[in-house]
Amino acid sequence: MKKIIINRVLMILPTVITIAFLAFSIMYFSPGNPAEILMRYRNPEGGTDPAALAHYEEMLGINDPFLTQFENWGAGILTGDFGESFKTGNPVTEEFFYRIGYTLMLSFTGLAFSLVIGITLGFLSAEFKDSWLDNLLRFTQSLKMSIPSFWLALFFIYIFSTQLRWFSAFGYNSPKDLILPGLVLGLSNSSRMVRLVRTCILEEKGSGYVYTARVKGLSEIQIFFKHILKNITLPIITLTGVSLVSMIGGSLIIENIFGLPGIGTYLVSAIVAKDYPVSMGFLFAYGVIIVFINLFIDIVYQFVDPRVRDCANAEI
Amino acid sequence: MRKYKVKTKKQQKNLIWIWSGLLLILLILIVFSPYIFPDSNTINYELQLQKPSFQHWFGTDEFGRDLFSRVFNGMRTSLMYSLIIEAIALTIGLAIGLLSGYLGGKVDGFFNYIMNVFQAFPTTIAAIALIAVLGTGDLTLIIVLSVMGWVAYARIVRSETLIFKERDFVLGARAAGGSSAYILGKHIFPNVLLPVLPLATLMIGHGIMAIASLSFLGFGVQPPNAEIGLMLKDSATFISRAPWLLVGPGIVLAMVVALINALGDAIRDKMDPQKQMMEI
Amino acid sequence: MKKGVRALALLVIVAVLVTGFTGCTGAKAKDKASATEQTLVVGAAKDFKNGSEPKTLIFDSLTDSLEDMSSGPRLVTEWEKNADFTEYTLKLKEGVTFSNGEKFNAQVAKFNIEYWPVYRDCGYIKKLKSIEVIDDKNLKVSFNESYGNFIDELSKIWVTLPNAVDAKGNITDWTGTGPYVLKDYQADMSATLIRNETYWRTDKMPGITKIDYKVITDENSRVMAVKSGDVDVIGLTEHYTVMPFADVPDLQANKDLQVSICEDYGTITTYSLNWAKGVCMDQNVRKAIALGIDRDMLCSTVLYGVAEPTSRFVLPTYKFSQQEEGLKYDLTKAKAALEASGYKDGDGDGYVEKDGQKLSLKMVVSDTQVNRSVGVFLQDALKKIGIAVDLQVFDATTTKTMLKAGDFDLSTSHPWTGTVVSYLYWRGNLNTYDDYGIGYGVNDEMNTLTETVSVTGDDKVREEAFNKIWDIQNDFVAGVPLYFSQRIFVAQSNIEGLKFCPNTAEVDLSEVVIK
Lengths: 316, 280, 515
Description:
Strand content of chain A: under 5%
Shape of chain A: elongated
Number of strands of chain A: 0
Distance between the termini of chain C: 67 Å
Structural class of chain C: alpha+beta
Radius of gyration of chain A: 24 Å
Mean pLDDT of chain C: 86
Shape of chain C: globular
CATH class of the domain at 101-274 in chain A: Mainly Alpha
Mean pLDDT of chain A: 83
Oligomer: heterotrimer
């Protein structure tokens, strides 16, 4: 186990370097001259003066060989300098830290919903196995997995914003505005949680200690909270990590629809606007965040009881 | 010990038949939609934004086009692309998974590291970045999603290969002097193919959703063509005037993906009796 | 067991974090400001510093555009010109200060007149000889040759402090003499403005004390935001239509909202035809396209009866606009035009071809709901005369790149603007590709006529020149005008006094009150 963990940790460095390399080359090979694009942003109404263009090219060093440019960019990263946004002129790090807050708030709200929904419904589903409730819950879970999150988002906006007017449809004014997008994210990601909790509980229920507890006269709910929950905690945490990864990736489209100023929306608009420093920096940041979450998942997974691991395998 | 009952083989078989039957009906509608609904692109402004009715089950869009037929036409595009994408991803995943698992050592380490790198980028975001480089277009869409899709296959193929590598029949074949290529092709490949099948089924649904998401964001299929994500994008404008534009495409998309997933689960349960507890 | 305890602790931590977050989300939103508070929340399409409108809240122009498109006094209160329009004497408003206390004087005005014209498409800079500061309040401007359009063009000069700009036309210090002061700014997100309590135009002192400028880039979200009451008004800070026309009837029916549509000023959505490259080099093809589009049908269907059909480049209410409509819908003439160039449907597939080549247009439009719908409409319309259209929808930046590279046959474009004289300087006499397709400088005569218009101060001469220009444009068909795209304000019903300015890029809040 130790060996696996050490191995995974050692893998981090080359992985991160490769991520940086990929993020850089995607933007490097994008069509269009960055100097011209930057010049356009700095001077939208001016023409393309060749002398000015040459000046910008020099400034950005875009005539240097690929590796030199990559090294320069990489060296910047090491000192925390990701360059400045072409569009706004602000440092990329500043833009990132301003926006990551919204993405994290949204992801954690989504996680909260997915945990609450997942554990409650999973418990009910297991407790009333093969009853109509179980069947109904399982049916809704599989349906939920088949509905795209943006459809759910539009549908919720229609119901809760335009019809009932409970929530504002756009932008972030107060924490209340995280409920709808968070619920959408949570719902789209909760199916796996429900299934995991259900299968794990069923697995646990069949084991000896539950039988003993039952003999001792503990109620099912007491058994769940005193015994089962702690045994399935690790797989839940592991799946929470997996969900977090998919939420950070999936929040993009939700941020887009609900107009939350998170990193996803900003990255897409930067890619579209050919704001290279932002695109490269944000792609890199995405990669690094996810690599570390994945590392965390792998490590936690190592501690999961092999018996429980079996039931978790299907979902993680 | 277990006090709950296991579903009988017969029940399971029935389930597969029901799923398959429903799916088949939908598939026929989808695949033959250009012949069943030949005029799904015909514009008729007199029928602009009609509510669902007997003539138009899902209503009509702003060009008076019948939404029901357009949804199936759109699903056809999505399904076709998704199948192509998954076929490519499966091929790459199989090749890399087999090599990685069978050869082990440095090769395995290298591929593992590549997989880690690929998994570090969320699919949608990486796809958009790649589309920015390659330009929007249906071909780009297919390439990009295939490139992002193989990792899931490679992981499962690798772990299955690791298991089969140690099985007696493989060891026997090796002892008998069979070449690596022969063992991989003749003994391991057919055996790992089966466990991959449920995943492949599930991934078709995923592919459809990924295409829809990208089209919704404006990076996928282009407007004149019918496509679910694109239709939903347009429905956003009409959400209070014509909410049915949202409903029809959503229902069909959810049904198709849910049925494909259910089929995948059913196949998995059937093939792996140990996991019978975990249906759906 | 110990492991289990640790795990339980972890779960508790996660749960606490999670409930902490849900607790946050459950917190009540702050009550909206009471009705009497004069804070206007504006939903805008663009970043505050990027659009052309927001700056008019902070800066003043040298002259004002009046309703008849002539010029009135503003920071320049009086002007005199000599007989051949080579010398102007400008008198400036006294006692005007910038919001930081610095004085507006002849030196500041001189700087602005010299610095801004290149960035504001003002033609006078090409003829400018010298600017002489007579005293604090008077300037003498001399030109090398006659230049009649000078005073009108001064309405495009928004006065900044001389040290508030960089070398490339960017404002670095947003301190102006205008009605509002910029307090807070987040790129691509928001801006906060408060009233300039010492604004020099006391008659134009706005009632709104604070403006919250919120950037909402998505068109549907903007509409949603005004519907849900998150913003007070949309469409105010853009000189073009910022919402899908499909939403307008719905918004009009909404009792909580008021919809104002500007019938007098605005632009006509015009599609650009690539007359320098590809199939559209053929004049008959261009004519067939212009003749083949049923604009009445377009407006009554996909534009929901809001936009008005027209085949003019400029609204008739504007000075020097064309006298008559251009090429109107006529299927037979359209087909005849194609036949005249040898296009025929030989293989019966419904599309015409010449030399075995199917007539197919690459149509590039930027991604808005209206553009997509109009695109599909045009595709269907042109199919009826046998032209195939390959519709390609891109985001704004990609669209601009493609148009600038000339990689299109038919595309969305920038319309002729109200003051047609200045448009002539910008795209009207351009014969190359720019962000909006290709210009209208189709021949040498356009050059000569542009020269004539700029030199003279005599409206009669200009009118004659413009009649010729319109004849050339109607005949050449470098672009296809489709519909009058009105500016639309959608506001909460308690907001009064919103009005459209003759200078379409100006935002005038002087009469706005929140009841």
